[in-house]
Amino acid sequence: MKPVSMKSPSQKLPLGPYIPGWAAASFFAALSSAAILFLPKVVQTAIDSFRAADAANLLVYAILMFFGLSAAAVLFKFFAGLTFAFIAKDLWEKLSVKCVQSALRSPDASPGAGLFTSVNQDTRAVMQFAENGLARVASSFWLYILGFVFLGTLSWKYIPAALAASFASFCAAFFWHNRIEKYYERERSQYETFVQALSISVGNLEWIKGRAREDTEGKKIAAQSRGHLSAALQASLFSIGLTPLILMIWAAAGLAFIIIGVLGYKNNVLTLGEFAASFLYLAFFSLPALDFSYAGDLFRRARVGWRNIGTWKDSPGALVPEEGNGFERKFSENGFFVFGKEVMDREEIRKICSERDGIFLEHTAHFFRRPLIENFLLMTQFPSLEEILEALERAGLIERDAELPGAWLDRDPDTFSSGERKRAALARLFLMQASKIWMLEDPVAGLNRELSDRVLESLRRFSENRVVVIFTDDPRVHQTAESYAKSDLEA
Amino acid sequence: MRNLIWKHKFAFAAVTAAVAVSALAELAQPFWLKQIIDRSLIGGDFSALPFFAALFFLSALLAQTVHFFEMALVERLSTKICGEIRENLWKCLASAPLKESSKRPSGAWMSYFTEDIAAVQDYFVEGIASLANQGVYLLGIFVCVLILDWRMLPVFLMAPLLFLATLPLKRAYLKSCREALESQERLNGFLDEIPKGLREIRQFRMAPALEDEASEKMAAHKKALLKQSRIAVLFPAVMESLGWMITGTALAFGGYQVLRGNLSVGTLVMFLEYSRRVFAPLYEMAGRWNRFQSSAAALGRISKSVDSRQSAPGSESQFPGFDEAIRFDNVSFGYTQGSRIYNRLNFTVRKGEKIAVRGPSGAGKSTLIRLLLRLYEPDEGAVFTDGIETKFWDAKSLRRKMLWISGDTGDADFEAELKEKSRFSLILLDEAEKRLDAFRTEALLDSVLSDPEMTVIWISHREQILNSFPRVIHLNQGVLVDDVKGVRPLARGLTPFI
Question: Which of A3, A460, B57, B162 would staple A318 via disulfide (CB 3.0–4.6 Å)?
Answer without folding.
Answer: A3
